[in-house]
Each structure stands twice: as structure tokens, then as C-alpha cells.
Write a structure and sequence with these properties.
The complex is a heterodimer of chains A (about 190) and B (about 210).
Chain A (H helix, E strand, L loop, with lengths): L1 H13 L10 H6 L4 H28 L8 H23 L1 H7 L2 H4 L4 H12 L4 H31 L9 H16 L3 H4 L1
Chain B lengths: L1 H13 L10 H6 L4 H24 L9 H23 L1 H7 L10 H11 L4 H31 L1 E2 L2 E2 L14 H36 L1
Antiparallel strand pairs in B: 1-2
Helix pairs in contact in B: 1-7, 3-4, 3-6, 3-7, 4-5, 4-6
The chains are: A mainly alpha (about 190), B mainly alpha (about 210).
């Protein structure tokens, strides 16, 4: 039980996917303009991660021991089809949410946080339960990063920055400062 | 001929995938703590982009439009697997340091972007030239960031010490925040260059008009 809590906290804060592994940067910079969309995208990604955790565990246990070189190809196929599946389910169950997410839903396929999560979980030899908890932590960390960044950027829109700094350069430096703040969490593990 | 050279050079400077389009950020920041890692990553991406652009361009009439994205991803994943095993065989230390980021080339949006935007619509020759230009541009960006971070963070370049024993390294540059901030500063420099050039063009145009 202790172990599971550490996996969760480590993925959520200490080894945050965005700020210490640099995963999922494209949606992080692309979608963090508005708080509402950022939150929804974070939730959708977390959900895809959970399903991916289930599928990759199944693949690792039953299929890939016979053909390890197929790992990457099978993972990306799993992620792509999960995203397609989630898209269909969301469209059927809640058309409103589907419209709100728009183009970002299919784009989760090329979110490196998802594939990165699958590869990290495999490399560390996580079982089913550990994998699911790791997915929850990683997805939660990604959502947290998106929300923090979106809040900062909404404030930043209103402030007066030099013309040259506007846009990506500014967001990059904000992300650097946020990442510095997250480094403070690494103290959690030494005790 | 001029179109061919245009396609080549636009990827390096005018439409540089990192500095202008801000694509492929994940590998860009994650592996640039030393110049040699940046170089290995750049070369692996170079190989994958070249291979998949060629193949996609060859198969462009065969791939059905509805499932094109999945086809591209599978083609890219195949080349990445080849690159992954090659790196493991040739340079095991570098492969270990790059870790999970070699398989993650699959989801580098720059590569998929080139397939969708260029290789699927043009002849094999042009696609190869475009892939060459784009990946050299990407390599250039990776190497710039990698060497700046290594020089400031470690006082060395490609493992050769530059400043002698009295240099106090900026550890922050090797850590994640340093990557974000340095890339932000480089983008700022790029913006400044572009603005200066645009101003120069505008000024030139006005003086020209005054003379006439």
C-alpha cells in the first residue's frame, strides 16, 4: 500500500511528466490558453492513460514476451485505437463535451505523455494495479500542469509585456519558472 | 532546380521546425543537456524522417485517405524501431542516456507534420529534399541548445573542458528549468532577428519610394 502511494505522489509532483520529463509539451503550450479547455483536456488524457495502462499490461503479459521488437508498434496502435474509441464514446454519450474538446480529442494520439507513460510503466515492470495508479498520478500531474499554466497565461494576457516577448518565448520562460518551483518537491523523497 | 533548393533551405532557417513552428519540443528539451546527446537524437530523427518521408511519398497513391494518419504512424514506428536497435548496437552508452526518448520519436509531431503537409502530396525527390532540410534544421536547433546548455552547465563542449578548473558551472542549466528558460531566450533572440530584418526591409522599401 505504501508503495502505491509513493508511485502516485512521485508521478503527480516529484517526477511531474511536464516539468521534469518534458512529456506532453505540445498540448501543454497549445491548449493552455483557457482554463476550461485545459481542465477538460487533462481529464480526457487521464482517461486515455488509464485504458492504455490496462491494454499495455495485457500486451506485456501475454503477447510481447514472444516478440519484444513489436513493442513500440503495438503500443502506438493501442494508443491510437483507444483515442478513437474514447472519441466515439464521448460523441455518443455527451455531444456537448465532444464539441467542447473539438480537435484536441484526436490529437491525444500524438501526445507523447501517453506513449511515454506506457514505455515508462513497462521499463519499470509495473503490474496491473501499480500501472493503473501510475496512470492516475501521471494524468493528474499533467492536468495540474495544464491548469497552472492556463491560469498564469490568462493573467499574463492582461499584463503589459514587451512586444518581442509575447507568445511562445514568454510561455517558455513561465514554464521554466514553474518547473523550478516543482523541483522543490524532490525533497519529498530523500526523507 | 530553384524549387528543390528552396524546399531544402526553408527547413533550415525560414521554416525551422523548432525556432519558427515550435514543433518537436519534447525531445528538444529532454535530451539537450549535453551536446553529444543532442547530436545522437538529431541523427536518429534525421534517419526516421528521411526514411518515412521517402516511403510515404512512394505509397501516397496507395494509402486510403481515411486511414492515412494510422498508416503514417505505423511507418514511422517501424523506422523508429530500426533506429532504436541500431543505436543500442552501435553506441550503448548514448542509448542508455537517451532512454525512453528514442522510442518517443514516434510521437514527435514534427515528423507526422511533414508527412501530412508535404510527403503525402509531393514526388519522392521533393519529399527527400524536404526531409533533409527539415531534419538538418532540427539537428541545428538541437545542437545549438545542447551546446549552450553544456557550456554553461558543465563548462565543456562535446566532453572537452573549455574554461579550466576555476569555472563555476551553472547546474541549473542541466536541470529541466534551465532547458525551458534557455529555449525561451533562444526564441526571443530569433524573434529579435526577424523583427530587425523586417524593419530593415520596410525601411529599404520606403527609401526606395522616396528616391523614385
Amino acid at each position: 500500500m505504501d508503495n502505491l502511494i509513493w508511485i502516485f505522489i512521485s508521478a503527480l509532483l516529484v517526477n511531474n511528466f511536464v516539468f521534469s520529463y518534458f512529456l506532453g509539451l505540445c498540448p501543454f503550450f497549445g491548449v493552455s490558453g483557457k482554463l476550461e479547455t485545459a481542465f477538460r483536456l487533462g481529464l480526457a488524457s487521464t482517461f486515455v492513460m488509464l485504458i492504455t495502462a490496462l491494454c499495455t499490461w495485457f500486451l506485456n503479459t501475454y503477447v510481447l514476451i514472444h516478440a519484444p521488437y513489436l513493442r513500440l508498434i503495438s503500443f502506438i496502435v493501442v494508443v491510437a485505437s483507444t483515442v478513437q474509441f474514447v472519441e466515439m464514446v464521448v460523441k455518443k454519450l455527451s455531444p456537448a463535451l465532444f464539441r467542447a474538446l473539438g480537435i484536441y480529442l484526436p490529437l491525444i494520439t500524438t501526445n507523447c505523455a501517453i506513449l511515454g507513460f506506457a514505455i515508462f510503466a513497462t521499463n519499470r515492470g509495473y503490474g496491473l494495479l501499480e500501472g493503473l495508479i501510475y496512470a492516475l498520478g501521471a494524468g493528474g500531474g499533467f492536468t495540474l500542469a495544464l491548469i497552472l499554466m492556463a491560469g498564469l497565461r490568462e493573467e499574463n494576457e492582461l499584463s503589459n509585456v514587451p512586444n518581442l516577448m509575447k507568445g511562445t518565448a514568454m510561455s517558455m520562460i513561465i514554464a521554466g519558472i514553474l518547473s523550478m518551483a516543482f523541483m522543490g518537491f524532490s525533497g519529498l523523497f530523500s526523507s | 532546380m530553384s524549387q528543390t533548393s528552396d524546399e531544402f533551405f526553408k527547413g533550415i532557417w525560414k521554416e525551422n521546425p523548432v525556432f519558427v513552428h515550435v514543433l518537436g519540443l519534447c525531445p528538444m528539451l529532454a535530451v539537450t543537456n549535453t551536446a553529444i546527446n543532442a547530436l545522437a537524437m538529431g541523427l536518429a530523427t534525421f534517419f526516421v524522417l528521411l526514411g518515412s518521408s521517402t516511403l510515404v511519398s512512394m505509397l501516397r497513391h496507395l494509402i486510403p485517405k481515411q486511414i492515412r494518419i494510422s498508416c503514417y504512424i505505423i511507418i514511422i514506428a517501424t523506422f523508429v524501431t530500426v533506429a532504436d536497435y541500431t543505436l543500442l548496437a552501435l553506441v550503448p552508452e548514448v542509448h542508455k542516456e537517451l532512454g525512453a526518448f528514442v522510442p518517443l520519436i514516434v510521437v514527435n509531431c514534427m515528423i507526422l507534420g511533414r508527412q501530412e503537409a508535404f510527403a503525402s502530396k509531393n514526388s519522392v525527390g521533393l519529399a527527400v529534399v524536404d526531409a533533409l532540410g527539415t531534419s538538418i534544421g532540427f539537428l541545428f536547433a538541437l545542437f545549438t541548445l545542447g551546446s549552450v546548455r553544456e557550456i554553461l552547465g558543465n563548462g565543456s563542449l562535446l566532453g572537452v573542458s573549455l574554461f579550466g578548473p576555476h569555472f563555476e558551472p551553472w547546474i541549473i542549466m542541466l536541470l529541466p528549468p534551465g532547458g525551458f528558460i534557455m529555449l525561451g531566450l533562444i526564441l526571443l533572440f530569433f524573434n529579435w532577428l526577424n523583427e530587425k530584418r523586417e524593419n530593415a526591409i520596410v525601411q529599404f522599401a520606403t527609401t526606395e519610394r522616396n528616391v523614385i
